[in-house]
Amino acid sequence: MAQEQVAPAVPEALAAPIAERRGAVRLVAGLGRFVRRRKLGGVGLALVVLILGVAVAAPAIQRYGDTQAFEVPNPEFNPTANPLDIARNPRLSTPVILERHQAPSARHWFGTDQFGRDIYARIIVGARLAVIIGIGASLVAVCVGTLVGVVSGYFGGWFDLVVQRCVDALQAFPGLVLLLLIVQVVPEPPLVLTVVALGVLGWATVTRIIRSAVLAIKNSPFVEAARAYGATDARIMAAHVLPNIVAPIIVVFSIGIGAYILAEASLSFLGLGPADKTTWGKMVNAGRVALDLHPWEALFSGMAITITVLGFNLAGDAIRDELDPRLRGR
Amino acid sequence: MTQYILRRLLLNVVVIWLVASLVFVAVRALPGDFVLTQVATNLELADNQAAIAEARRLLGLDKPLWQQYAVFIAGLATGDLGTSYATRRSTWAELGDRLPYTLELGTMIVLIGFSISLPVGIISAVKQDTWIDYLLRGFAILAVATPVFFIAVILTLIVLKYDLWTIDIIGRPHFWTDPKKALTLYIIPAISGGVTGTAGVMRLLRSQMLEVLRQDYIRTAHAKGLRRRSVVLRHALKNAMIPVLTVMGLTVSAIVSGQIILENMFNIPGIGQFLFSRLLMRDFPPFQGTVVLIATVIVTVNLIVDILYAWLDPRIRYA
After folding, report:
1. What is the interface pTM, i.e. ipTM, of the complex?
2. Mind listing the domains of chain B with CATH numbers?
3. Global confidence as pTM
4. Of B150, B203, B301, which to mutate for an interface test with A (greatest number of A Cβ within 10 Å)?
5. Could you tell me if B277 lies within 8 Å of chain A, comparing CB atoms?
């Protein structure tokens, strides 16, 4: 992902000999330079690659189904037990026992949860969800935010004024409240609604950044030249403004992913995450039930969230420093 | 300057009106209303259409939407945040009951947050590229990436495992009634909220300090023979804090979001828990009113920050 983004930052003198090499070699060289220059970014990139790999390969490496409940035959089970004996010992009537709250073992690498489900399998499935949600939400936010930001910055005037006040209003909302409002529109929020809600939350910030990037270039000579040439506004925006703000677009896209994953985890933790899906936030919440005796579920799923967000944040920061250091601190 | 402040105040009124309209539309777009959530658990009542219609009439839910909207906005204009459907008390009275808890937790979050984030930011800048810097930066990066509830879970686990103290989540202690119990209840959510809420401040402060420490006037201060300590704290920190101020609005917003989660986790009957439970109950007026109130706090903080900005940095002048 990062190799094309690194290219513009390469000094001319270095870029010339590299350009002669073949694609794959160039890619590796660019990547190597990125990792050498941005050590933390390299760590982040490695984590992102690992998580993307896990998300893609989830069905192959999850070992068990994420909703499969493990049970063992009950040695005490007696199909012909006398009702009076059952009253004294209810276990006589159950043919199987759920393997609840197992500690990590060779069979269950991360143990089992309160319903006897394999925590490792659920973490792996959760990775796929986290990646879909993080990247999906950031895509939604960047698409909407860029469209609005470019139009608003380019035209200015009353449209810009109205848009900026709406952005103010969205930013005056505590983020979580807005999310809670959107995801409850349907009783059982589907995955796509969660993604859209997070995107709605994020577009305001994206619009701000894109708008200021557009303002910085909209009076450049090349834009004026295009206008003198008779280009329409739509053409100038698409062919002249947009290509010149690719750097901030890539930066806001990559830097937001971690935050969206965190926000989704909060939603899931509060019980309003995507319905019927195994997410890490839900697992941390479920793991709180018997935390002192069986901490495995909460610990592993919480660490999964932290490591994933850490990876995306580090990679995003490095990409920002490489492409557009002025956006630092936004 | 006065003109600038007046214009900003006017703009803030517009923004708050937009927030109010947004939340009004949003809650009514949700499925179900207060009456339905109340009869949902009562099968006999659920079929009694006459009673449901009567209840809706009493609450004013049968009126056309534009009328409800007009009542809501007119109320806001006079400082009336509406009356709860559930308790029939005014939102102000409801908030009054809950404000102490939220302020107790909020104050502790802010105190702990800044007493961690300011030293972390300063020390890692002063000791740039030493092992202390790496350690503190690692801590800051982790704090940004960790969900607030996960820190709370880990701290709870430690307290439970080593049996450090009992967390009283039923007694609802205050600092002025039972300080010891209150401290044991609030300390975990306060650390979690403080660390995650001000994690951004740590990183921003470090990069600002690094920039300021390279300035000529800092070299001059050193050359004059001032103690390192007073150069850093008096000369550098002051200017490094200015950009950090701009993110205060965001910090407040992050702390509010954190409080919703933490108050629910630790059964603290504050405003965060109130907001969440009233939303689930579809008790519109207190929910709307509270959101508008929080938005007012956030835009006011932003305005104060911008005014302070011009005062702290005389190079900045608002037209």
Report:
1. 0.86
2. 31-80 (no CATH), 95-312 (1.10.3720.10)
3. 0.86
4. B150
5. no
